[in-house]
Amino acid sequence: NAGVTQTPKFRVLKTGQSMTLLCAQDMNHEYMYWYRQDPGMGLRLIHYSVGEGTTAKGEVPDGYNVSRLKKQNFLLGLESAAPSQTSVYFCAVGRAGERYNEQFFGPGTRLTVL
Amino acid sequence: AQSVTQLGSHVSVSEGALVLLRCNYSSSVPPYLFWYVQYPNQGLQLLLKYTSAATLVKGINGFEAEFKKSETSFHLTKPSAHMSDAAEYFCAVRDTGRRALTFGSGTRLQVQP
User: Fold this and answer.
1) pLDDT per residue over A87-112, tens digit each?
2) Partner residue facing A105 (CB), from B43, B100, B105
3) Mutate to test the interface with A, among B44, B50, B57 (most CBs of A within 10 A)
4) Chain A: residue nearest B48 by CA?
5) Do A105 and B100 touch (CB under 8 A)?
């Protein structure tokens, strides 16, 4: 029972390159989220999904795209990476129908864009 | 919209001393509030949550938090700090619009021997 996993753990990109981050869960939760963490700014929501085939924008969606083709996976894509996207990215999952939206987090992906 | 403010980006205490990490919230509806902890190079782990059942909430590792509506606060406390408590702590509030969480900027706790 792995919970929430993220692939890769670390990545270095050059400006303009593209990549996809994978979040996978075995908790069977409906909601999935992508956050980025930057020093002094806490975690900010990039995109989220409330079910298979649905996605929505969060607080800082520009420069990112997402897809939720399967319930257990949530992909975050960077089409043309920029140095401002250097960050630690966290995936989280949550149960539908729960009033308070408790979330369970993956271990994070540290991305550096040169 | 809901938001939280964490006062103090860094807090340093001596081992055995009281830990007090401050969080104030802003919400137009009754809030659901959380404290998460992040150990170095790890993800976030839930410490405790307020869901309106009780104003004093006990969490893991000896931490507790008290919801005070009159002060719009949800401060995190622990009577006696341990070296293993050194970590970054985040306060969060449920974002009712997005069914997500809105996080504070975090407080890094340092525990001195």
Assistant:
1) 999 999 998 877 777 899 999 999 99
2) B43
3) B44
4) A102
5) no
Contact yes or no for B98 and A58 at CB 8 A:
yes
CA B1, CA A105: separation in Å to the nearest integer?
23
Q: Select from B9, B99, B105 the Cβ nearest to the Cβ of A101.
A: B99
Q: In what order do the strands lie in the sheet with B19-26?
A: B3-7, B19-26, B73-78, B64-68, B56-58
Q: Do A40 and B9 touch (CB under 8 A)?
A: yes
B56-110 pLDDT per residue, tens: 999 999 999 999 999 999 999 999 999 999 999 999 998 877 778 999 999 999 9
Count CB neighbours of B13 within 10 A: 18
Token pair in block for residue B43:
């993800």
Instruction: Provide the b/e sequence for A74-97 (b: ≥16 CB within 10 Å).
Output: bbbebeebeeebbbbbbbbbbeee
For B44-87, give the DSSP string. EEEEEEE-SS-SEEE-GGG-EEEEETTTTEEEEEESS--GGG-E
